[in-house]
Each structure stands twice: as structure tokens, then as C-alpha cells.
Amino acid sequence: MRIVVLAGGIGGARFLRGLKAARPEAEITVIGNTGDDIHLFGLKVCPDLDTVMYTLGGGIDEEKGWGRDDESFRVKEELAAYGVGPDWFGLGDRDVATHLVRTQMLGAGYPLSAVTEALCDRWKPGVRLLPMTDDRVETHVAVEEDGERRAIHFQEYWVRMRASVDALAVVPVGAEQSAPAPGVLAAIAAADVILLPPSNPVVSVGTILAVPGIRDAVAAADAPVIGLSPLVGGAPVRGMADKVLAAIGVEATATAVARHYGAKGAAADDAPAGLLDGWLVDEVDAAAVADVEAAGIRCRAVPLMMTDLDATAAMARAALTLAEEVRA
Ligand code: GDP
Ligand code: CA
Q1: What does the domain layout of the chain look like in residue ranges?
Q2: From the CB of 37, is ligand 1 less than 6 Å away?
Q3: DSSP 150-168
Q4: Which positions are annotated as binding 7,8-didemethyl-8-hydroxy-5-deazariboflavin (predicted)?
Q5: pLDDT (tens digit per residue) in 52-101
Q6: For 2-134+176-327, CATH number?
Q7: pTM of the entire structure?
């Protein structure tokens, strides 16, 4: 079975671990968000790709959910001693090696997709990890600080400000001019199932869908498209997804996010093409099932907390079961 997953960082990576456990024989292609990418100290950092690679490759800091295990921060301390910022980004010593290899290869002319493949040669994540694009896309967030509106990098909003002020707008800068990375559209077209894991609908999945061609390919795919809600009981399970949902006028509920993705084949004239055949909500949101189904999306309520590998594998199995139902 060929499965395509559109993934952000922590939520996407944890789900993928469960999916691999549930279907060890499946051929899984991950289309990773690169809108979080940032240049720091001359290094190209790809937080979401690295989170997927380290999580599936056994190198992740399990506690934090990002970065390398057994990490130290001496480089960061030395940079701070020079007064060289930013000081809010957690750049670990072991992690720096990944960014050095990536930056060096990009400098030598390799596209990000080839660099990611080379990094995965070491980590052997057990999936084919593709960046959504080889082009530079950077998510910026418009905020008001001291009475002035300005756009800042998503990482600055998320990490430095902890999303403590309202996001007025979220813009994937460069997305319109970008093209899907080699292999992305082919993988979508050849998929037996396409999954939207519990990743951030705006700054992870939304950014991937903003690369011209990807959304239409998913909407047009023969494969069932099944999503899992990252919102449980009207709030994100972790992180501040509600802040960026508010910026695009979507309520922080499982139903609102399903409607935002839209029912497959249900596009109005100039609205973006609808994507979902099926949607999983958590058991606490069982009351949402009827609303989602009224929107033309097959919906089931199942436990959606990724507390351990077994629970996460059960979520993946529920998504694949719903895909079978839709197909039948
Ligand atoms: P990021 O790039 O690290 O922010 O990761 P993602 O975009 O992949 O995922 C973040 C989303 O995952 C957040 O909106 C969380 O609400 C969601 N999430 C995290 N853990 C869980 C969980 O156990 N269950 C569900 N349903 N969602 C989760
Ligand atoms: Ca991310």
C-alpha cells in the first residue's frame, strides 16, 4: 500500500511513528512543510523536516519532541557571549552538524530534496521524506507590537513570542512562485491513501497546500483523503494552533477545521478545491460527527491522543479503516 502524508513537525512526526507501526509493509511518502525554515548564523535550518527525520530515525529528544537527544548548547552559549543573536532559537550542538551538512550541500548546488535524501541516508526514517518544494518559502506572521503592524518570521512569532499576541495574518512568503519538489505530485497521484495527520492546519498543512499544484493534486487524487483533527475539545492538543486559526478566521474546533479543508469534490466556483473524504475527531468531540457529515465528509469519533505508540498506531488504523469505508 502506498500512503502519502502531508506533515508538519511534532504532531506529524509522532503520527508517522504510529502509522509505521500499524502498517510496517506500507510504502510511505511524507511531504514535509518547509515554511518554518529559517536562516540562522549562515545556516539553513529546516525544523519540520528535521523533526520528522530525527523522530523516525531514533535521534529525537523525546521530552521536547524536537531537536537531538543527549543535546548540549555550548555553541549557543558562545554565540551569546559574542552578543550575536537571535538568542531565542534552540540551536543545539549536535543539531548544528545537520545544518552544517545541509548548508554546505545547498551551497554546492544540490536542491533541498537531494540534501534531505542525503541526510536521511544516515537516519533511515523508513519513509521517503520529500520537502514540499525546493524553492524558498518562509511563513511570516503579521502582528501589532507597540501600536505598529509588522511582519515577522513564523519562528520569531512562535518561539520568541510564544504566540502571545494575536496573529493578524499568516503569509507563506514565496509560496506562489514555488513549485512542488520532484516526486511530490507523482507520489500524490500514485497514492492508495492520502492522510492529513494531526498537524497544524494553517502553518504546516496549509503551507504545503499553498505550493501551487499540491492542493489540486490532492483534490483530484483517486485515493481517499482522510484527516485527523489536531483540535480536541475545542483546543489544540499542544502548541498554539488556535492563534493562527484565528488569523484565517477559522474557529479552533474539530468541525471548523474539517470545513476549512472542505469536502472533496465540493468546491464552489472560486473557492479552493475541497479535500476531505473522511475526518476523525476525538471521542470527546463525538457531538461534532453529525455536523461534519452534514458538510459531506465521512466522520468518526475515536481516541485521538498520541499518548504512546499503541494509541498512535490505533489512530493510524482508524484512519485507514475509514479510507476503506470511503472506497467501498
Ligand atoms: P509542529 O510543526 O511541531 O507544530 O507540528 P505539527 O504541525 O505537525 O503539529 C502540531 C499540531 O499537532 C498541534 O496543532 C497539536 O494540537 C497537534 N497535536 C499534538 N499532539 C497531538 C495529539 O496527541 N493528538 C492530536 N489529535 N493532536 C495533537
Ligand atoms: Ca512546524
Answers
A1: 2-134+176-327, 138-170
A2: no
A3: EEEEHHIIIIISTT-S---
A4: 50
A5: 999 999 999 999 999 999 999 999 999 999 999 899 998 999 999 999 99
A6: 3.40.50.10680
A7: 0.97
